[in-house]
Amino acid sequence: MAKATPKSDKKSTGRKSAVPVPPEIDASVLDTLYQTITARRGTDPALSHSARLLSRGTRKIAQKFGEEAVECLIEAVAGNKRELIGESADVLYHLLVMWVDAGVQPEDVWSELRRREAMSGVAEKASRPKENV
Ligand SMILES: N=c1c2ncn([C@@H]3O[C@H](COP(=O)(O)OP(=O)(O)OP(=O)(O)O)[C@@H](O)[C@H]3O)c2ncn1[C@@H]1O[C@H](COP(=O)(O)O)[C@@H](O)[C@H]1O
């Protein structure tokens, strides 16, 4: 994933820039969003979509995730890149709501991805226990 170069004034005087430095545009946005969704749990559903969704329970949360995933794959198959970006954001948001509901921490998933870095997808599949037929 391409990482935007953060604006920094470190090399110059060390003084703070008058220009506000935007948050980095990278995957850390997922950690921030996860924390926001977690903080919304139990708050007023009229003010927070996350609070409303979390109050509706696991089945509804899973259903919404599935719907967003389908909308995402439709845009991918249609070759609509711009729409795919928007639908991808919806999928990631609803995935994070599902993690919050299930008590899954982002670090748990990041660790699993790190563990897999050492192994190719082909080798990983070959290492799975064979199903009984
Ligand atoms: N990233 C998102 C985000 N992506 C999608 N959605 C919402 O997901 C909803 C999907 O629409 P749907 O009609 O499919 O869902 P629905 O209203 O539950 O519909 P029904 O199932 O009831 O028919 C829309 O209301 C979107 O606004 C999101 N809602 C919130 N966030 C972010 O989550 C954070 C917390 O938001 P709040 O919880 O609203 O404060 C903020 O940073 C938001 O930007």
Automatic annotation (TrEMBL):
Residues 1-12 have a biased composition (Basic and acidic residues). Residues 1-23 are annotated as: Disordered. It is found in: Cytoplasm. It catalyses: 1-(5-phospho-beta-D-ribosyl)-ATP + H2O = 1-(5-phospho-beta-D-ribosyl)-5'-AMP + diphosphate + H(+). InterPro entries: HisE, PRib-ATP_PPHydrolase-like. It is an enzyme of class 3 (hydrolase). Its EC number is 3.6.1.31. Pathway: Amino-acid biosynthesis; L-histidine biosynthesis; L-histidine from 5-phospho-alpha-D-ribose 1-diphosphate: step 2/9. Belongs to the PRA-PH family. This is Phosphoribosyl-ATP pyrophosphatase. It comes from Acidomonas methanolica NBRC 104435. The lineage of its organism: Bacteria, Pseudomonadati, Pseudomonadota, Alphaproteobacteria, Acetobacterales. The gene is hisE.
